[in-house]
Design goal:
Structural class of chain B: mainly alpha
Number of helices of chain B: 10
Radius of gyration of chain B: 19 Å
Helix content of chain B: over 70%
Radius of gyration of chain A: 24 Å
Distance between the termini of chain B: 25 Å
Helix content of chain A: 25-40%
Shape of chain B: globular
Oligomer: heterodimer
Shape of chain A: elongated
CATH topology of the largest domain in chain A: Rossmann fold
Strand content of chain A: 25-35%
Largest sheet of chain A: 6 strands, mixed
Order of helices and strands of chain B: HHEEHHHHHHHH
Number of domains of chain A: 2
Structural class of chain A: alpha/beta
Number of helices of chain A: 10
Number of domains of chain B: 1
CATH architecture of the largest domain in chain A: 3-Layer(aba) Sandwich
Strand order of the largest sheet of chain A: 6-7-8-3-9-10
CATH superfamily of the largest domain in chain A: P-loop containing nucleotide triphosphate hydrolases
Strand content of chain B: under 5%
Distance between the termini of chain A: 39 Å
Chain lengths: ~325, ~250
C-alpha cells in the first residue's frame, strides 16, 4: 500500500481557475519524491490539498491508509509540512513556537526531542531569540523544526531551498537523509533541478495541474537521457562535408565544433562509424568530449511538449 | 478530543498576554481610576445615590462589563486574525484538530485575559468605593458568561475581518455605543419613557442589569431575562461559529 494515495484529485478555485485537473499519484513509504514544475503548475495546491489546507473539488486522498477527510486526525498526525512562505509568529521565542507545533499535533512534551531537532538545524543557541530577530535562513530552519516537532512519517518540503545559503542547504540535506534512514516519506517541490537530481528517488513532473510523469530518477535519466558527442576541430568548417551527411551533425561555434546527439542506452551509438568517417573526410580532431543530458533538459522538454500539444489542440 | 492541542493553543495565546503583562495590568488600572475621578468624583458628587447605592459604587458593574466586553472581543478577534494575517494559520488548518478545539483554545485564552482584567478593575474599584456583593456566585457566573460569549463574538469578527480596520470596526462602532447606552453609568429608570423602551432593545442592557443585580440586588430588567439574554447570545455566536467551520468561510479556500 502506498503511503500517500492521491486519486483523481481536482481543485477549482473560486473564480474558476483549475489548479489541479485530476491528479493521481502514489507515493511509497520511505521514498523521496521530487515534484518538479514551473511556477503555477499546481505543486503547492497539491500539497495543500493533501495537508488539508485546501478543500478538494473532487477525488480522494489517503495518507497512511486514512482518508484525509473522514480520518483527518489519523491522516494529519502523520504529516509534517514546511510551507513555501516564511510564516512565523514574529514576537514568540523559537523554542516556544516549536513546542506549540508539537502540542498542536497532540503530542506530549518532549524536551529532549526538541533539543535534538534544534541542534541538528543549528538553532539551539538561538532557542530563546524572538523570531523576528532571526535571519531569513534561520527562519526557514524554524519552519523545518516545527514540521519535525511531532515526528511526522510523511514530510512535505515546499520549495525548502528557495533563497537559502549553501550552509543551510547542506544542513537540510543532512536532516533529510537522517529522516530517510528512519523511513520517513519525503515529498519535495523545487525548481532547482540539480537538487531533485541529487537527492530524489523518484521524480514527478507537474504542469498546468496535471502530472506529466512519475518515474524512478535513474530510469528516467537513462530512458530520456540523450548524450551528446562534441568534436572540436583544428580547422573550422563552413558546412558539414558530404562524407558525413548520414550523421545529422550540427556545426557550432563558427565551424569549430561538430555536435552529434546519440542515445547512450542504444546498442549502436554510431560513435565508431563517426570517428572513422571524420578521419576519412580528412578532418583533424583537436578534442572530443561527451555531455550527459541533464534532468533539466528532460524537464524543459516535457513541459514544452505539453504546452505545444495544448496549443495545437486549441 | 485533542486536549493537548487545546492546551497548546491556550498556552501560546496566553504567552502573548504574559509578554505584555505590565501593559495588560496597568492600562485597566489607569482607565478605571480615570472613570472614578470623572464619573465618581466630579459627576457623582452631584448625583449622590441611585436607588440607595452611592453613584461611585453604582457604576462599578458597568465599568467592569465595559472593559470585559471590549477586551474579550479584541483579544479573541486579534488572536485568530493575526495568524490569518501573517499566514501561520496554515498550521492550524493542517493540524489534527477540529474547529471546536481551535475555538476552545483561542476563546478560552481570550476569555481568561478578559477575566483577569475584570478582576483587576474590581480590585481597583474596591480601593475607591465600598463594594458589597450580594450574590457572589451569580456575579462570577455573569462575569464568566460575558467573557465567554463576547470572546466568541470576537472570534467571529477575527475570522470575518480582512483588514486591521475591519477588526476595529465592530468593537468601535457597535459594541462601545451599546455598552454606553446599555446603562453602564445610569439606571434605565433615569431615562425618559420613550428612551426606556428603546433601551430595552439593547442586548447589553440585560447583561449589565444582571451583573448589577449580583452586586446590589437591584436590576433594570428581571434577572431571569438577563440570564436568558446572555444564553441566547452565546448560543447565537456558537451557531455562527459552527457554520463558519462547516463551510470553511474565510479560512479554508
Amino acid at each position: 500500500m502506498a503511503m500517500v494515495e492521491v486519486r483523481d484529485v481536482r481543485k477549482v478555485y473560486d473564480g474558476g481557475f483549475e489548479a489541479l485537473g485530476g491528479v493521481t499519484l502514489d507515493i511509497d513509504e520511505g521514498e523521496i519524491l521530487a515534484l518538479l514544475g514551473p511556477n503555477g503548475a499546481g505543486k503547492t495546491t497539491l500539497i495543500s490539498a493533501i495537508c488539508g489546507i485546501t478543500t478538494l473539488t473532487g477525488g480522494t486522498i489517503r495518507v497512511g491508509g486514512h482518508d484525509i477527510v473522514e480520518g483527518f486526525r489519523a491522516a494529519r498526525n502523520l504529516i509534517g509540512l514546511v510551507p513555501q512562505e516564511i510564516t512565523l509568529e514574529p514576537f514568540e521565542k523559537v523554542i516556544n513556537t516549536v513546542r506549540f507545533s508539537r502540542g498542536l499535533f497532540g503530542k506530549p512534551r518532549n524536551e529532549a526531542l526538541i533539543e535534538d531537532i534544534l541542534r541538528k538545524l543549528s538553532l539551539w543557541d538561538k532557542k530563546d531569540s524572538p523570531i523576528r530577530a532571526l535571519s531569513g535562513g534561520m527562519k526557514r530552519r524554524v519552519l523545518i523544526a516545527k514540521a519535525l516537532s511531532h515526528e511526522p512519517r510523511v514530510l512535505f518540503l515546499d520549495e525548502p531551498t528557495a533563497g537559502v545559503d549553501v550552509e543551510l542547504r547542506r544542513d537540510m540535506w543532512a536532516v533529510v537523509e537522517g529522516l530517510k534512514r528512519d523511513g520517513v516519506t519525503i515529498i519535495l517541490t523545487t525548481h532547482y533541478i540539480e537538487e531533485a537530481e541529487a537527492i530524489a528517488d523518484r521524480i514527478g513532473v507537474i504542469n498546468k495541474g496535471e502530472i506529466l510523469l512519475v518515474e524512478e530518477k535513474t530510469s528516467l535519466m537513462t530512458r530520456m537521457g540523450q548524450k551528446e558527442l562534441r568534436v572540436e576541430l583544428v580547422h573550422p568548417l563552413d558546412a558539414v562535408p558530404p562524407a558525413l551527411d548520414g550523421f545529422d551533425l550540427k556545426v557550432e561555434q563558427a565551424g569549430r565544433v561538430l555536435s552529434y546527439a546519440y542515445d547512450a542506452a542504444a546498442e549502436r551509438t554510431g560513435i565508431g562509424r563517426l570517428m572513422a568517417a571524420l578521419a576519412e573526410a580528412g578532418l583533424s580532431v583537436r578534442d572530443v568530449q561527451t555531455v550527459q543530458n541533464s534532468l533539466e533538459d528532460i524537464f524543459v522538454g516535457l513541459v514544452a511538449a505539453q504546452d505545444a500539444d495544448q496549443e495545437t489542440a486549441a | 478530543m485533542n486536549c493537548l492541542a487545546i492546551l497548546a493553543i491556550y498556552r501560546f495565546e496566553m504567552s502573548r498576554f504574559f509578554r505584555t503583562l505590565l501593559q495588560s495590568f496597568i492600562s485597566p488600572v489607569i482607565s478605571t481610576s480615570l472613570y472614578f475621578v470623572v464619573f465618581g468624583a466630579a459627576i457623582g458628587s452631584r448625583i449622590n445615590e441611585v436607588e440607595g447605592v452611592s453613584y461611585g459604587a453604582f457604576i462599578v458593574p458597568g465599568l467592569i462589563m465595559l472593559s470585559v466586553m471590549t477586551q474579550s472581543i479584541s483579544n479573541a478577534s486579534f488572536g485568530i486574525y493575526f495568524p490569518k494575517f501573517i499566514g501561520t494559520v496554515y498550521e492550524l488548518l493542517s493540524a489534527p484538530v477540529t474547529f471546536f478545539e481551535i475555538v476552545l483554545g483561542y476563546v478560552g485564552a481570550a476569555a481568561t485575559k478578559a477575566l483577569f482584567i475584570g478582576v483587576v478593575i474590581l480590585g481597583t474599584a474596591a480601593l475607591f468605593v465600598d463594594l458589597s456583593i450580594q450574590h457572589p456566585l451569580a456575579m462570577v457566573a455573569f462575569l464568566l458568561l460575558t467573557c465567554l460569549s463576547f470572546a466568541l463574538l470576537g472570534f467571529i469578527i477575527g475570522i470575518w475581518a480582512k483588514s486591521f480596520e475591519q477588526l476595529q470596526l465592530v468593537p468601535l462602532l457597535i459594541v462601545t455605543p451599546l455598552v454606553f447606552l446599555g446603562g453602564s453609568f445610569y439606571s434605565v429608570s433615569m431615562l425618559p419613557p420613550v428612551w426606556q423602551t428603546i433601551t430595552l432593545f439593547n442586548p447589553v442592557l440585560y447583561l449589565i442589569s444582571g451583573f448589577r443585580w449580583a452586586f446590589f440586588g437591584m436590576a433594570d430588567v428581571p434577572v431571569g431575562l438577563s440570564l436568558l439574554a446572555i444564553g441566547v447570545f452565546t448560543a447565537l455566536c456558537m451557531g455562527v461559529i459552527w457554520w463558519i467551520f462547516r463551510t470553511g468561510w474565510r479560512i479554508r479556500s
